[in-house]
Recover the amino acids of this structure.
């Protein structure tokens, strides 16, 4: 099991370009099945989840080559419509292949997806939407089978603006006869990026980023599609919160500040100074921090649930009491007992966590419970006294490319080893 070693007390300084987006590239890789041609993606992060997605594509019969930040997918020779459990359990985002394979093959068979254990994340919304488009859905023994000799356009209203369900509908609708209108759609920037790729590949998608998305069916498909993946807004938030935890001055480049404006505003509330440009953010964290307004996670453009644990680490030594309300996942406070081992004072009552700032944090052995919770432990360790050891079964590397090297380039004392 990899163990991260972090020696706290080192001020962070420097500049960094943010990696490509994990949550954007994964559905785009699934979408590469639709055209039956070749896709070249750039700005792809080298992550465990990306490797898992590449393995799924290879199992389906596609050719996949990755060279640094570039991935080449040839889906012309796709031969399979089934993803075995061993591949599905490696990442939650594997559910994206439901709509993509159905659109390409007319039938798909897969098991329930894996990923971080953050609570119930049923795919009922996905399946209901596909049924409205003419698919026959059968669930048995942990396996889902969808069949549709012919998908048709539909007016679909999601009960909740689920990112995954929105993406699955967009993918399946590209093969449907007629127009699909999706209302109460997720509005995340990653949805816009998926639409950008689909349109580059020959689809007609409009309204992405708003509550209503329209997809014209019968996507012709291009023989060759080239696309650049957006920057990772949660990785950007991670480095900004790291500066708040350790103190220092950091400039992030290659980002879209509007994508994580709720997080930069929360950091300002804590007492950090931030300056945003068209594609950059500068943070200075030299003064003692103090509690800000309550942080309430909501679907985009609200505060992202993926940044909740990261900001919580920044609040551990802030004067006063910081309040967090988690509205997306019921098990998103699994990192709290580990933060307490470092000396944090945190009370949890249902979906509410109250963080009372302490004068100092002390190193201790802790365990990463999930991707963002693991990153939060690293951030807290940057602001703790002594050397913290973080045992991690691979969660952190699912979402961050060379995080230890990036942090060292900013002056952190951090390493990871098996």
């Amino acid at each position: 099991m990899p163990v991260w070693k972090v020696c706290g007390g080192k001020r962070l300084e420097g500049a960094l370009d943010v990696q490509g987006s994990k949550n954007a590239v994964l559905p785009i890789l699934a979408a590469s099945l639709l055209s039956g041609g070749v896709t070249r993606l750039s700005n792809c992060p080298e992550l465990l989840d990306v490797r898992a997605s590449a393995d799924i594509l290879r199992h389906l019969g596609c050719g996949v080559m990755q060279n640094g930040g570039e991935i080449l997918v040839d889906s012309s020779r796709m031969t399979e419509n089934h993803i075995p459990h061993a591949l599905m359990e490696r990442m939650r985002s594997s559910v994206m292949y439901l709509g993509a394979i159905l659109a390409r093959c007319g039938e798909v068979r897969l098991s329930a997806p894996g990923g971080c254990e953050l609570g119930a994340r049923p795919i009922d919304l996905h399946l209901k939407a596909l049924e409205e488009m003419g698919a026959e859905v059968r669930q048995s023994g942990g396996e889902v089978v969808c069949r549709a000799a012919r998908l048709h356009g539909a007016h679909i209203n999601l009960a909740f603006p689920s990112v995954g369900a929105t993406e699955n509908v967009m993918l399946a609708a590209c093969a449907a006869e007629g127009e699909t209108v999706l209302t109460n759609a997720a509005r995340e920037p990653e949805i816009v990026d998926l639409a950008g790729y689909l349109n580059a590949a020959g689809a007609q998608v409009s309204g992405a980023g708003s509550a209503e998305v329209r997809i014209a069916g019968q996507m012709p498909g291009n023989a060759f599609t080239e696309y650049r993946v957006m920057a990772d807004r949660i990785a950007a938030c991670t480095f900004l919160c790291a500066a708040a935890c350790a103190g220092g001055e950091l400039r992030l480049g290659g980002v879209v500040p509007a994508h994580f404006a709720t997080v930069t505003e929360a950091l300002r509330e804590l007492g950090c100074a931030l300056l945003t440009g068209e594609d950059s953010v500068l943070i200075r964290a030299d003064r003692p921090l103090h509690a800000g307004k309550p942080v309430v996670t909501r679907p985009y453009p609200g505060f992202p649930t993926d940044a909740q644990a990261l900001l919580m680490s920044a609040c551990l030594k802030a004067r006063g009491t910081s309040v967090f309300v988690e509205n997306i996942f019921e098990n998103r406070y699994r990192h709290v007992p580990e933060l307490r081992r470092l000396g944090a004072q945190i009370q949890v009552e249902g979906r509410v966590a109250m963080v009372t700032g302490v004068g100092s944090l002390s190193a201790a052995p802790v365990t990463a419970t999930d991707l963002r919770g693991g990153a939060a432990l690293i951030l807290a360790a940057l602001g703790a006294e002594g050397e913290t050891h973080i045992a991690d079964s691979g969660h952190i590397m699912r979402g961050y490319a060379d995080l230890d090297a990036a942090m060292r380039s900013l002056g952190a004392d951090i390493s990871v080893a098996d």
Remarks:
- Residues 233-246 form the longest helix (14 residues).
- The chain has two domains: 3-19+231-417, 22-228.
- The radius of gyration is 21 Å.
